[in-house]
Amino acid sequence: MAEMKNIVVVGMGYVGIPCAALLADVDRFNVIGVQRRSKRSGWKIDCLNRGDCPFSGDEPGLAELIRRVVVEKGTFRVTDDLSVCKDADTILIDVQTPTDSNRIPQYVSLREVGARVGKRLSKDTLVIIESTVAPGTTQNIVQPILEGESGLRAGVDFYLAFSYERVMPGKLLEYITDFPRVVGGIDPKSTELAVELYRHIVKKEITATDVLTAELAKTIENAYRDVNVAFANEMALICESMGVDVYNVRELINARHDRHMHLPGAGVGGHCLPKDSWLLRFGVQQYGSRTAGTEMIALARRINDGMPWHMARLVEEALAEREKPLNEARVTVLGIAYLENCDDTRNTPAQGLIDALKAKRASVIAHDPHVREYDGVELTNDLEAALRGSDCLVIVTKHRGYYDLDLEHVAELMRTPVIVDGRTVFDARVCREAGFVYRGVGKG
Hints:
Layout: E1 5-10, H1 16-24, E2 29-34, H2 43-49, H3 62-72, E3 76-79, E4 90-93, H4 108-119, E5 126-129, H5 137-150, E6 159-162, H6 172-177, E7 181-185, H7 188-198, E8 206-210, H8 211-241, H9 246-253, H10 273-287, H11 295-321, E9 330-334, H12 349-359, E10 363-367, E11 378-380, H13 383-387, E12 392-395, H14 407-413, E13 418-421, H15 428-433, E14 437-440
Parallel strand pairs: 1-2, 1-4, 2-3, 4-5, 5-6, 7-8, 9-10, 9-12, 10-11, 12-13, 13-14
Antiparallel strand pairs: 6-7
Helix pairs in contact: 1-3, 4-5, 8-10, 8-11, 10-11, 11-12
């Protein structure tokens, strides 16, 4: 019988939980998750140790997997005690790596976890960074911390690799198991060990490379998508200004099999896209050539960050058509999660919209069927309560339930029938026939 391997996954979020659960389902692995017991996230420890999934919304297969590995197999548990790293054969680090208002990476959690793991690091342990980082971070920041705290040498006494996640809420398991994986180690042995680990859970091709190439691939991949979304958003603004529907234009373009114009919308959210371009730029500035330009990705970020403010302008224009000043209006924001049918609010474009509306002294209430709590705005899970007496309904997130709204009933609940659609949930003609003033991103 093969020897049991002990795996520790630090960070029980959208990356750490599904990865830990998948590894725990491998017969020869025993997995311990580590989560800080804070007021905001400490409840996850008890939730997971009961065998329950902490995420709201659609996550196919995850609840069943967690229950199986916790309750039936007993191969997965969660603690707030990092001393479990002393007995680990492999340690995965999955902490958040945000940027600040100056677009500089904030590695508070990464540095802290690196130091605490380093103090407990044993010889021959494999450490894998799964958190997205600026290119150059694994070797220039994480490796020195681990070596300094442990007194061990990377590539000799322990092994170190970077392997980025590609997860998305709503498809957490699928995007781990059914997407190609990139693994970059600081040396051939580190790479080999990391590839061997992921072969247990990844069904698609696993590509081995060096650590810096892997870090660049992650940030460039997300910058690529951000730039493409920004192009779609700018074209939407152009079409609006010329009285044309951008979705008709997009359909004509994408009729060619080798064209794929992305969807415009109310803004770009999530943990990755709003900050990974800045991580890329920071890595280039710190460890690359000063002549390397990052103008395109910076411009894309400005365009995408501006979309929630454009939504606020559409709200003001639509209300003006009904002679309702924005500073006297009650506005209902539908959707706080950044992505449909999930509860992830990180960098949600709804926040930019709420800030813009409040700056113009509008009264704002928000509804989301999946989000439990959110600071900075009145939030309810009661849709009728959110709509009652409202002067404008603004769709930021295309949760499934919003497609089924009865517009006649919505009009009865609202004080002023106005809709601003940031995700093309409704048909403009149908809305206008129901008596609504309608505005939509890219709908000229």
